[in-house]
Write a sequence for this structure.
């Protein structure tokens, strides 16, 4: 039987949202550095801010995952490798990757570094997820379109850690910007490689990202479905 656990994982677009996530009880945060992150519209972190963020989080028992999840040109690979080498000195707890060339190089050069297959890989089948598991990924962030049944199918087929999004959100195209007005509160959705959500609006529970409003209406309606999916 596979070990099961549930992790509250929060996006942190800058130092202030990071502190908010930690003080709100997040088990882990994910954030981007000065380059190679898909959330270009976020404030993100300089190298110095990354070092401070890791110190701040680790002192409070919170894990830090860093996104290096854009597709890279050949000339960019040395810079990306240098950046990940820096991340290993902090050290961060995981790196999210989309580019398979970078993934392969990191498995060779940093075999102990936990790598997460980014949602930008659009993994949506047991075979695709198992391939990344066989190549050395610790976690797969699944494609946003997947149903609970499809997530369960992947879970049963492969022991890899899974992370996914609530089916409430769909990835309609790669250049979307969407605003939803619910209970007089705006949920902003920023352009990246699909829908990216703000810290205020979203939390992640284990492998599942859920919409949250002030009354937490959607969260608790959906959590039990995800728990039983696993």
């Amino acid at each position: 039987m596979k070990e099961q656990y549930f992790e509250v994982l929060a996006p942190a677009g800058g130092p202030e949202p990071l502190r908010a996530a930690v003080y709100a009880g997040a088990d882990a945060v994910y954030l981007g550095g000065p380059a190679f992150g898909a959330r270009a519209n976020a404030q993100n972190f300089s190298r110095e801010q990354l070092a401070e963020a890791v110190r701040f989080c680790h002192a409070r028992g919170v894990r830090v995952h860093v996104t290096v999840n854009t597709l890279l040109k050949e000339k960019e690979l040395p810079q990306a490798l240098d950046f990940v080498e820096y991340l290993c000195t902090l050290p961060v707890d995981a790196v999210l990757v989309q580019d398979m060339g970078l993934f392969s190089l990191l498995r060779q050069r940093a075999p102990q570094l936990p790598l997460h297959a980014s949602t930008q890989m659009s993994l949506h089948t047991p075979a695709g997820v198992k391939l990344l598991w066989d190549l050395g990924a610790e976690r797969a962030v699944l494609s946003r379109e997947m149903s609970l049944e499809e997530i369960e199918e992947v879970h049963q087929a492969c022991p890899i850690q899974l992370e996914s999004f609530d089916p409430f959100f769909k990835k309609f195209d790669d250049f979307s910007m969407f605003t939803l007005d619910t209970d007089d509160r705006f949920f902003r959705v920023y352009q990246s490689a699909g829908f990216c959500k703000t810290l205020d609006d979203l939390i992640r529970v284990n492998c599942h990202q859920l919409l949250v409003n002030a009354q937490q209406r959607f969260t608790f309606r959906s959590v039990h479905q995800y728990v039983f999916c696993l």
Observations:
- Residues 167-221 have pLDDT under 50 and may be disordered.
- The chain has seven helices and twelve strands.
